[in-house]
Write a structure and sequence with these properties.
By secondary structure, the protein is of the alpha/beta class. The chain has 10 helices and 7 strands. Helices cover about 45% and strands about 15% of the residues. About 50% of the residues are buried. It binds adenosine monophosphate (AMP), fe (iii) ion (2 copies) and zinc ion. The site of one fe (iii) ion has 4 residues, from loops.
Length: about 270
């Protein structure tokens, strides 16, 4: 049983349409995936029906963008009620911040001398929930970067000319909302680059006391020492340990479907 609980489609900043993503997951030998696009449930239906057709279980999920101090914290939520008004309202608020940031980023990049228009980015975004990766792809298409990663390094990470902040809730609020919607909250890549300063053991313990259920330990952004620390912390706090690819299609090289997986016993605990 191979389980990958964190993958993105083109409904946010991945590149595969949801049904194609599910077919790729089946081809990669996965039995279970969770579609966890950033701040949207958009791909659930399409991925779910393709999963039914292929006998692959698709757990509806979402990766909520949160902020703590100066860091960006991502909270995965598994199987929340699709119609919970408070959670939907919060996700809509986050998406509004995402959409509003695009023109501000374009303006900042124009100020740095680049010839980039809002329409160049809009073309990349299409119907997706917009994010910096779309701006990155637009920059690469214009020749201002080699690829998405290069565009982040040159223009889009904090401190670079195109960086603009946006609204994001505190992780405590997000955990409360997910639990109230009957979902299962799990911290995504807690010691990845963007959040490792803020997510100390104490902060994670506080979130666990508030109802956090799991930690995504097995993620490519964690080195072996970090994984060992997180595994010990999960044991101390009685948290479920998950692992996942954080697949983004062609948008993120090396993060292949099923490259990291969740132990079936941990998966059972997660959904219990
Ligand atoms: P946003 O949520 O719009 O601020 O964009 C953050 C997203 O960009 C993350 O979820 C990743 O998918 C992606 N990302 C962040 N840093 C990088 C990077 N250095 N290279 C490529 N993609 C990145
Ligand atoms: Fe992403
Ligand atoms: Fe993330
Ligand atoms: Zn992700």
């Amino acid at each position: 049983m191979r389980i990958d609980l964190h993958v993105h489609s083109d409904r946010s900043d991945g590149t595969d349409p949801p049904a194609q993503l599910v077919r790729a997951a089946a081809a990669a030998g996965l039995d279970v995936i969770s579609l966890t696009d950033h701040d949207t449930f958009d791909g659930w239906e399409e991925a779910g029906s393709e999963g039914e057709r292929l006998g692959l279980r698709v757990v509806p999920g979402v990766e909520m963008s949160c902020r703590l101090g100066g860091g960006s914290v991502h909270l995965l939520a598994y199987d929340p009620a699709p119609d919970d008004p408070a959670l939907l309202a919060e996700l809509a608020r986050i998406r509004e911040g995402r959409a509003g940031r695009i023109p501000a980023m374009v303006e900042a990049l124009q100020g740095a001398g680049l010839e980039l228009a809002v329409d160049d980015v809009a073309e990349v975004v299409g119907e997706s929930t917009p994010g910096r990766p779309h701006v990155a792809d637009a920059l690469a298409a214009k020749g201002y970067a080699r690829d998405r990663r290069d565009a982040f390094d040159l223009w889009l990470t904090e401190g670079k000319p195109g960086f603009v902040t946006r609204y994001a809730p505190e992780p405590h609020l997000a955990v409360d909302l997910v639990l109230a919607a009957g979902g299962v909250p799990v911290l995504a890549h807690p010691r990845g680059r963007a959040s490792r300063e803020e997510l100390s053991d104490e902060v994670i313990a506080g979130l666990a006391a508030a109802g956090l259920v799991g930690l995504e330990v097995d993620h490519l952004d964690h080195d072996p020492a970090t994984r060992a620390e997180l595994r010990a912390l999960a044991r101390d706090l009685d948290l479920v340990v998950t692992g996942a690819s954080d697949y983004h299609g062609a948008g993120k090289e090396g993060y292949d479907l099923g490259c990291e997986t969740t132990d079936p016993e941990q998966f059972e605990r997660l959904l219990a």
